[in-house]
Amino acid sequence: MLDLDMSPYGAFIWPAWGISAVVLAALSARALIAARRWKRELARLEAARK
């Protein structure tokens, strides 16, 4: 069974997990936004080329 009680270390471990999750989510969102921007730019450049 999964034991999530970390006794005296929980005060340090859970915030570290939370911060890591927030940072990973922000990096993923940033990459997704950039990919969409690059896709729009590529479509604009291809349209201008024709």
Identify the overall geometry. Answer: rod-shaped
Provide the gyration radius in Å.
21 Å
Number of strands: 0
Distance between the termini: 61 Å
Q: Provide mean pLDDT, rounded.
A: 93
Specify the structural class. Answer: mainly alpha
**Percent of sequence in beta strands:** under 5%
User: Which H/E pattern describes the elements?
Assistant: H
Residue ranges: pLDDT <50 for 5 or more in a row? none
Quaternary state, please? single chain
The tally of helices reads: 1
Residues in helices, as a percent range: over 70%
Largest beta sheet, briefly?
none
Protein name: Heme exporter protein D
Transmembrane segments: 12-33
Function: Required for the export of heme to the periplasm for the biogenesis of c-type cytochromes.
Family: Belongs to the CcmD/CycX/HelD family.
Concise account of the structure shown:
Keywords: Cell inner membrane, Cell membrane, Cytochrome c-type biogenesis, Membrane, Transmembrane, Transmembrane helix, Transport. With 50 residues, the protein is an all-alpha fold.
Question: Key features?
Answer:
cell inner membrane, rod-shaped, cytochrome c-type biogenesis, mainly alpha, 50 residues, 0% strand, membrane, Heme exporter protein D
Describe the 3D structure.
The radius of gyration is 21 Å and the shape is rod-shaped. The model has no long low-confidence stretch (mean pLDDT 93). It has 50 residues and is mainly α. InterPro entries: Haem_export_protD_CcmD. It is a single-pass membrane protein. Keywords: Cell inner membrane, Cell membrane, Cytochrome c-type biogenesis, Membrane, Transmembrane, Transmembrane helix, Transport.
